[in-house]
Design goal:
By secondary structure, the protein is of the alpha+beta class. It contains 39 helices and 36 strands. The strands form 8 sheets. Strands 16-36-35-34-17-29-33-32-30-31 form a 10-stranded mixed beta sheet, sandwiched between helices. A hairpin with a 2-residue loop joins strand 18 and strand 19 (463-465). The longest helix is centred in the last third of the chain and has 39 residues, at 861-899. Mean pLDDT is 78; it is low at 1-53, 742-776, 1126-1144 and 1150-1168.
Length: 1168
């Protein structure tokens, strides 16, 4: 008998179901927009919530079949190829031939690079150019080269990681070694222990009993725990020998290739019979064979069609607010450039009409009109003023972001030694956004809590056990040879009740826990080792084990347990597995005496709907559930139902038909499950404790002081969510809150003067849950407005998809910067939807980490990530951008002032090589170091004063106001740098009696004044001085003077007379003392206003940061003097976690395939 997992689409969510979808390509924002506007959604490649179409056929041992004309598709013009992909994979972008042209093509798709390429072309035209071609070529080549090297390094790293698998060997049907790339769809392959799976393969048989195969999926989802795969019963029995495999001629009809790692639907047609195929029969490419000597399989998907390769694309690109703002500013600069060039071109036309055409000595031999000359002048000024558009800006930003990401990775204070897990910045493009977070959306279980479960209390037959009413020692389980020594329970009365065997309900309670699960058991060195799909299941089975109901062994048809002093084997007829939509699991067993019984456990919301009216203890159990929830325990209801043989036979036929359906199989199974899971009888309820992680309340309190609003999104009951809110310090006052309910026909709201908000969403009402409980846009706006006015929000009873939708609503209507943090696969949608996604490497695998932007091991590290690294990154980037724009304006606008004295002829004010090297050598290093290393206060003060975080949230350090301040600052400095030397050169006399008032000497003095000014200006902006910063400033000025004297020397002029024309200018001009005085005066006047403004602002209008900086030494001394609190504190209250029965999908399909998992039972029985 084959039981299939139910995966019905959640009618209460948008688009995708609420299953674990670690690699889905959900675009939650797009879906929300589409649903809000009432327009149909654009379906993705395979809509995650729908059943993929079954229209791919694979024939075993028949390569020619897959080359038939009906399977050919056009790839280019009349060239066709098979739609079945080969197993060779092209993972690299470039090769030796295509690297340069392809990389250049990609880089010139960027507007800035294309703009400078156009300028370079213009500079080749003699009538237009006023600058030599190398002034643009050298910076452009440098930028392109740095980017190309980075792209090549990334491509080589990717290619090296993929190339070895592509060249691994694997035996085909003839069991001759062949390379992966030579395999094709339909081939039968043999895999050995520790081999990697070369393609998506239908498992046929293995050397293990019943063709069980253990695989490690670390390359798929990062999880190192072993998973189980197995073959169909028919192939296990008939395909063990090589000649049998050679004659295997089945046809596999399955879904089209897609990216769903958690789903596969197909049917095998063989010998006129149909057999259902699902994910538990499929070995995915990238898995590693473990604990299995040999296994055989049929290649279903190869190469680019495999699921792991389908997940290689469609990564959502996240951009920071500063990125968007920076692009708008670059567009503004370009518009300003056009306007300035147009104005100067018009000026040249008027000048030539009135002056130039009348001066015989200015005649150049070209009979051109003033309009045409103005037109040429316009393009000339586009070239001259091109440095207003910063070509090196984007490359510099990427270098800074890369360095900031490395600092996060190297932070030892975010290293979790217990699991050897450092913090990891998985992206380099979002660092400064960490300093602007306004809303944090957090999962609870495993994120705020440890996700390490312990069985604490239970209610059986209306009586509650687990209360510690006296200072007794924990229960001694020495009477039970299978007891787990780590298990603790305080209520001795429950053990006495069980051992007396008088209370049948108590025995039935623990029998259910030992039978109704999907836990796998291994026997290692005489010990029982349980492998559970979730910590909840492991805790419940371990509890039953300690109380005398020991799960010993299971096959695919039976479960064997030890009930106190005797063993019993139950025949498993069907297993109805858990998922996040069903919120329950059931098992149908045939007892040794022939009775058929259904055991069910699940969340109270779904169990109470299915209870028989004659069920006892409903009220008392509900009271206990409320008490457990108030104690922030995770609750679960247990019930049963006796089934007659006739009822079972009828249901079994329906179940078999649904399990082999080729379309809508999940919906069909869901309907069948609903028919049997009714009229249940209550046994009791369990309560599990999940403790908070260390430092969580303190972290949340400190983030709240930084005006970051914390929203906890959980599937818990309202009472549990409320209590966990108080224990987390999210909720501080029970009286001041709003409780909001949404149901099919009611809306109740209570507003208070100092509100907190809790939202209890009734997931059983599909209509209202289509948009987080709202079915019109106005309700969405009201919900967001009301929630965002509150200090804290807890959303309870929400599904994974609804978590993502809550984030989307806040992003859509508040335009706020959001961060989502979670640890499980059910948090992936939320993590991918937020502006910043943070994954915690906890107990639920690595799916959240692999979908995140940043990852670490403990929630408390979020405080340091935001208040230290995020704030520093934001401040550094803002300083860098403000200064970068300033220095380019100050440099470029000197040409503008010079135009009024040269007839608007597009003549440059500097030497050509100075223009070429200004951004490359003379002014780049100091600002890069500020962007990488600057900090206003140290990390300890950043954590001590969370209010320092506020400027980032408000965008106060970089916006259009700051941009225009940089613009006007650059205009002012350019004005001073031009006109003071110009005034000094009007009437001057050197020491030798000659007047050095020539253009070249003026260019040297102006350039020298500019270099000293901009380097001292960045010194004034630097808050954190190190030897490296000091060296960079002095080194930049030294490099300028060293290069200038070299290129002004006679020797280089002799070698390249055309390109180096300022021969002897530097040595001649800079030996005049009054020119040095001019430089000093220019620099002093340029910097004096900045010094005065900084002094007045920090003295009269100090910010919070200024105040902290002023008293920095005092605070640092106080921090050193503070004594550490004692390790042990009496009277500390225990912290508990809340309810959510939300474990991941279990091993039901694996277990219920109709065969034994292990055939060592006889050996094990003899040992016992």
């Amino acid at each position: 008998r084959m039981s299939q997992r139910q995966r019905a689409d959640s009618t209460g969510s948008l688009g995708p179901d609420d299953e674990v979808m670690p690699y889905s390509d959900d675009e939650t924002d797009d879906e929300l927009d589409a649903s809000s506007e009432g327009e149909p959604e654009e379906p993705p490649e395979h809509e995650p919530g729908a059943q993929p179409p079954v229209d791919t056929s694979v024939k075993s041992n028949d390569r020619a079949y897959h080359q038939l004309p009906e399977f050919q598709r056009k790839v280019f013009l009349c060239i066709k190829k098979s739609k079945y992909s080969g197993n060779g994979i092209k993972t690299y972008k470039y090769n030796a031939i295509t690297f340069i042209p392809l990389n250049l093509f990609e880089q010139f798709k960027r507007a800035a690079n294309l703009y400078f390429l156009a300028l370079l072309i213009l500079q080749i035209i003699p009538e237009i150019t006023t600058l030599p071609w190398y002034t643009t070529l050298v910076p452009l080549v440098l930028v392109l080269s740095i980017t190309a090297i980075k792209d090549l390094a990334d491509d080589l790293a990717t290619n090296e990681s993929i190339k070895p698998p592509c060249n691994r060997g694997c035996p085909l049907l003839s069991f001759q070694e062949t390379k992966w790339m030579d395999m094709q769809v339909g081939d039968v392959v043999r895999l050995k222990k520790n081999d990697f799976v070369p393609a998506d393969i239908l498992m046929l048989s293995s050397s293990n009993p019943n063709s069980l195969c253990y695989v490690e999926t670390a390359e798929l989802d990062g999880e190192t725990n072993l998973k189980f795969k197995l073959a169909l019963k028919i192939t296990d029995e008939k395909l063990q020998q090589e000649h049998q495999l050679a004659q295997f001629d089945a046809m596999i009809d399955c879904e089209e290739p897609n990216n769903r790692l958690d789903k596969f639907t197909g049917t095998m047609q063989w010998s006129r019979h149909s057999y259902p195929v699902d994910l538990d029969n499929i070995l995915l490419r990238g898995c590693k064979i473990r604990n299995t000597d040999v296994c055989h399989g049929l290649v279903i998907f190869a190469g680019a069609d495999t699921k792991i390769m389908r997940n290689g694309g469609k990564t959502r690109f996240k951009r920071t607010k500063i990125d968007i703002l920076m692009n708008y500013m670059v567009y503004s600069i370009f518009a300003l450039l056009i306007l300035v060039a147009l104005g100067l071109a018009i000026g040249h036309g008027f000048w030539y009409e009135q002056i130039g055409s009348l001066a015989w000595y200015l005649y150049d031999g070209a009979d051109q009109s003033s309009v045409y000359r103005g037109f040429l002048s316009f393009w000339g000024y586009i070239i001259v003023l091109n440095t207003m558009v910063p070509i090196s800006l984007y490359v510099s930003v990427e270098v800074i972001r890369l360095g900031q990401s490395k600092f996060i990775n190297w932070d030892l204070q975010m290293y979790y030694a217990e699991k050897d897990t450092p913090a990891k910045a998985r992206t380099t493009t979002l660092n400064e956004q960490l300093g602007q977070i306004e809303y944090i959306f957090s999962d609870k279980t495993g994120t705020l809590t440890q996700n390490i479960m312990a069985f604490k209390k239970c209610n059986i037959g209306g009586k509650t056990y687990g209360e510690n009413l006296s200072p007794w020692l924990p229960v001694d389980f020495g009477w039970n040879q299978y007891a787990d020594p780590k298990f603790e329970f305080m209520d001795h009365s429950l053990v006495a009740c069980i051992r007396s065997k008088q209370d049948q309900e108590t025995l039935e309670f623990f029998k259910l826990l030992s039978l109704c699960h999907t836990v796998m058991v291994e026997h290692k060195e005489g010990e029982l080792v349980y492998q559970a799909a979730s910590p909840d299941e492991g805790a419940l089975v371990t509890a039953a084990r300690n109380f005398g109901f020991v799960f010993l062994h299971r096959t695919q048809d039976t479960i064997t347990i030890k009930e106190m002093d005797h063993e019993a084997t139950y025949q498993m007829l069907a297993l109805l597995d858990f998922n996040s939509d069903r919120k329950r699991m059931s098992i149908i067993l045939k007892f040794p005496d022939g009775r058929i019984r259904l055991y069910c456990k699940g969340a109270d919301t779904v169990i109470y709907e299915r209870l028989s009216p004659h069920s006892l203890h409903q009220e008392t159990t509900q009271t206990s559930l409320d008490i457990f929830a108030n104690e922030t325990l995770r609750t679960l209801c247990l019930c049963y139902k006796d089934i007659s043989q006739a009822e079972w036979d009828e249901w079994s036929r329906k179940h078999t038909a649904a399990s082999i359906a080729t379309r809508d199989r999940d919906a069909a199974l869901d309907q069948v499950y609903e028919q049997i899971e009714n009229d249940l009888l209550m046994i009791g309820a369990s309560a599990i404790e999940d403790k908070l992680q260390d430092g969580v309340p303190e972290t949340i309190a400190n983030l709240a002081k930084a005006d970051i609003k914390i929203w906890v999104l959980t599937g818990d009951k309202k009472e549990t969510a409320e209590n966990i809110g108080f224990s987390l310090l999210v909720l501080l006052d029970l009286s001041n809150r709003i409780t909001f309910y949404c149901s099919s026909n009611s809306y109740v709201g209570f507003a208070c003067s100092q509100p907190h908000l809790q939202i209890a969403l009734d997931k059983s009402v599909p209509k209202c849950m289509s948009n987080i409980g709202f079915d019109v846009n106005a309700w969405q706006v009201d919900f967001v407005d009301m929630a965002c006015e509150c200090e804290a929000v807890i959303c309870c009873r929400v599904t994974p998809k609804q978590k993502a939708n809550v984030v989307s609503l806040v992003k859509k209507y508040k335009k706020a910067v959001t961060l989502s943090i979670g640890d499980g696969a059910n948090d992936v949608n939320m993590i991918k939807t937020a502006d910043i996604g943070v994954g915690i490497s906890g107990q639920e695998g690595m799916q959240a980490v692999m979908s995140s932007d940043y990852a670490f091991a403990q929630f408390r590290y979020l405080e340091r990530l935001l208040l230290v690294h995020g704030r520093w990154s934001y401040i550094r980037m803002c300083k860098f951008l403000r200064y970068f724009f300033f220095k380019n304006f100050a440099f470029t606008l000197v040409h503008f002032w010079f135009s009024f004295f040269n007839g608007f002829s597009a003549q440059v004010a500097y030497e050509d090589w100075f223009i070429t090297l200004y951004n490359v050598c003379y002014s780049s290093l100091p600002v890069l170091l500020v962007g990488l290393m600057d900090q206003d206060v140290n990390d300890k003060l950043s954590l001590k004063f969370p209010k320092l975080y506020l400027p980032g949230q408000r965008g106060a350090l970089f916006n259009f106001k700051k941009f225009f301040i940089s613009l006007f600052h650059g205009i002012f400095v350019s004005l001073i740098i031009f006109f003071i030397p110009y005034g000094a050169f009007l009437q001057t006399m050197g020491q030798d009696g000659e007047a050095p008032s020539d253009y070249q000497s003026f260019a040297v003095v102006t350039a020298s004044s500019l270099i000293i000014t901009v380097n001292l200006q960045i010194s004034l902006e630097t808050s954190y001085w190190t030897f490296v910063n000091c060296f960079a400033v002095l080194c930049s000025m030294a490099i300028y003077f060293g290069i200038m004297f070299d290129i002004h020397s006679a020797g280089i002029h002799v070698i390249f007379p055309t390109y180096f024309t300022f021969t002897g200018t530097a040595s001649n001009a800079l030996r005049q003392p009054y020119l040095w005085l001019t430089i000093i005066l220019t620099v002093g006047i340029s910097l004096l206003p900045v010094i005065c403004i900084q002094f007045l602002s920090k003295t009269i209008w100090p910010s919070v940061g200024d105040k902290v900086q002023r008293n920095r030494k005092k605070y640092e001394m106080e921090a050193e003097e503070e004594k550490r609190p004692p390790t042990f504190q009496r009277g500390g209250r225990s912290r508990r976690s809340g309810y959510a029965f939300s474990h991941s999908r279990g091993y039901a399909d694996l277990i219920s395939s109709g065969r034994s998992i292990r055939r060592y039972w006889a050996v094990f029985s003899n040992k016992l």
